[in-house]
Design a protein that fits this description.
With about 525 residues, the protein is an alpha+beta fold. It has helices spanning about 55-60, 110-120, 130-135, 155-160, 230-240, 255-265, 295-305, 310-315, 345-355, 385-395, 410-420, 435-440, 450-455, 460-470, 475-490, and strands at about 35-40, 65-70, 75, 80-85, 90-95, 135-140, 145-150, 195-200, 205-210, 220-225, 245, 270-275, 280-285, 320, 365, 370, 375-380, 400-410, 425-430, 495-500, 505-510, 510, 530. Strand 8 (about 195-200) and strand 9 (about 205-210) form a beta hairpin.
Length: about 525
């Protein structure tokens, strides 16, 4: 999941988007701008919205869901309204009747049914999203009314229907042999932008959808351009060739915080930061046989030995804030009173002493002849993870813990998390649009956090409460269950929080309409305009 997204947007005079070469003529501050150009370290990839290899910011421009997740709750999008049955098992959606796909195909209940059933025929791929495992049928009631039937009540259903993928809609004309799981022939959604040109590993052009059912975007063309990470982006912004960047600090750095601050210091740029959208953390394998990571005392000592204030200030230059719990308090159901654990080396030493880990002449604690040595995996492409790992390694050394830090590709680390072949590794929560339900559901998933949680004493009780919280229709019961769930994993210290991450935007001072979605992976480009 570790990925840094940096988007660079350039102002250009209105002209054909035939290849992006004219983008070099961009001039910062051009108020007649009709084109935005963003630089990404990676190609947009496969834009099939029913799979997971495509760029989420790009997919978010092209495809839409039935409902939208906002900070004020679930709002209508392609569905104007909906009803939920008393037993919580049936959702009836009333669709807009003025929507067409980018290829002119009408959006209606039949299109919804075809898309949903295509997703469900690839159920194994989507097992991470519990709604996919609960959905029994999708039924057409009339041309603009569709019914979803679930096997049991599932309160996050609307939240999961609002996600960037997979329950979004592509024109049935793009299906291949009635399916999407093996590929699609085109990428026609209903969103404010249509993908009109793509040259792999070079650029992709998105053009404003003039037939859009909502407000047509004022910025008429958005180009995603593949550029090398590093100083190139910063220099391009200084030259005025590009003039917009945002990052969620999720991996390989394309432009560091210091460079962003230097741009703001010129007076030509503004910096806008979202509220906390995720928690960066160290995940411990509680079920690793023979590993100190399996001991609550060791995990708790590590928690006390992390100086989050210094990490937030010196490594993240203040763009992230110290985190004391798995979820920040702005996450629904997460404002729970939990035991406080600040930076306290004396307390960490006291815990390890009490657990029988003795400090000897080698400065590494031992117990029963075994050294207190533990491994931490970090993403080799993330300079911030590497710096954190080295800093934490030094601090843990002060309390007699030998920390071995190992850099690997993010895909390799994800495989370790799925197989249980780790002691400690960096990760982060899913983010505002997904939490707490998605991260908590992942506690029971072998692909995610099963090895993190199954070694704790209360594992069976924890899993039972997770299953219960997802299906209860009683709001007070749900709050109580979440409080119990979060208390268990907090007390067991299996998720060791470090910082709360935000989306940081650097943009020209004359750019307006900059805002954030609940998802940490997207920005509402269609709302931006130059004064």
């Amino acid at each position: 999941m570790f990925l840094l997204v940096v988007i660079v947007i350039s102002g250009c005079s209105s002209q054909s988007s035939s290849g992006g070469d004219s983008n070099s003529e961009a001039v910062s501050g051009n108020t007649t701008t009709q084109e935005l150009i963003y630089a990404s370290a990676k190609d947009i990839g496969d834009m099939n919205p029913h799979l997971y290899t495509g760029s989420m910011p790009a997919q978010g421009m092209v495809y839409e869901s039935l409902v939208e997740n906002t900070k004020d709750g679930i709002k209508p999008l392609l569905a104007e309204s909906w009803e939920i049955s008393e037993d919580g098992k049936t959702y009836t959606f009333h669709l807009r009747d003025d929507v067409v796909f980018h290829d002119g195909e009408p959006f209606n209940a039949e299109a919804v049914k075809l898309n949903v059933e295509a997703v469900q025929r690839n159920a194994e791929k989507h097992s991470w999203i519990k709604l996919s495992t609960q959905l029994v049928s999708c039924n057409v009631i009339d041309e603009y009314t569709v019914e979803f039937v679930l096997s049991e009540a599932y309160y996050p259903a609307l939240i999961e229907l609002s996600m960037t993928r997979p329950f979004v809609f592509i024109s049935p004309n793009d299906f291949m042999s009635g399916e999407t799981k093996d590929g699609v022939s085109g990428y026609h959604g209903t969103g404010p932008y249509a993908l009109t040109e793509h040259k792999k590993e070079e650029y992709a052009v998105f053009t404003a959808n003039e037939e859009y059912w909502g407000e047509v975007p004022q910025v008429k063309t958005i180009t995603s351009k593949v550029l090398p990470a590093g100083e190139t982006t910063y220099l391009a912004m200084l030259k005025g060739e590009v003039n917009f960047a945002f990052t969620d600090d999720r991996g390989a750095d394309s432009m560091d915080v210091e460079a962003m601050n230097q741009l703001v210091d010129t007076g030509d740029y503004q910096l806008v930061r979202s509220e906390p959208v995720n928690t960066k953390m160290i995940v411990a394998n509680s079920s690793k046989t023979g590993s100190p990571a399996g001991e609550t005392a060791v995990r708790e000592a590590i928690w006390y030995a992390i100086d989050r204030e210094t990490i937030a200030r010196d490594i993240f230059s203040g763009t992230e804030s110290p985190a004391s719990t798995l979820f920040s308090s702005n996450v629904e159901y997460a404002d729970v009173e939990l035991k406080e654990r600040g930076y306290d080396l004396a307390k960490a030493n006291e815990i390890l002493d009490g657990a029988g880990w003795e400090l000897n002449e080698s400065d590494v604690r031992t117990k029963n002849g075994k050294p207190l040595s533990i491994g931490l995996y970090y993403d080799v492409n993330s300079s911030t993870q590497k710096m954190q790992a080295e800093f934490i390694q030094s601090t843990l050394g002060e309390i007699g813990i030998q920390l071995e830090i190992i850099g690997e590709e993010s895909t390799s680390i994800a495989s370790r998390r799925s197989s249980g072949d780790y002691e400690l590794l960096f990760n982060q929560t899913w983010g505002l649009a997904y939490d707490p339900q998605s991260t908590v559901s992942a506690f029971t998933s072998e692909a995610s956090y099963l090895y993190t949680t199954q070694g704790i004493a209360q594992a069976d009780e924890l899993y039972s409460k997770i299953n219960e919280v997802m299906i209860t229709t009683d709001e007070e019961a749900r709050k109580s269950l979440y409080a119990d769930i979060l208390t268990v994993v907090h007390d067991e210290a299996v998720f060791i929080p470090i910082t709360n991450g935000s989306v940081t935007v650097v943009a020209p001072s004359e750019l307006t309409g900059i805002s954030f979605k609940q998802s940490q992976f997207e920005l509402p480009f269609d709302q931006m305009q130059f004064e």
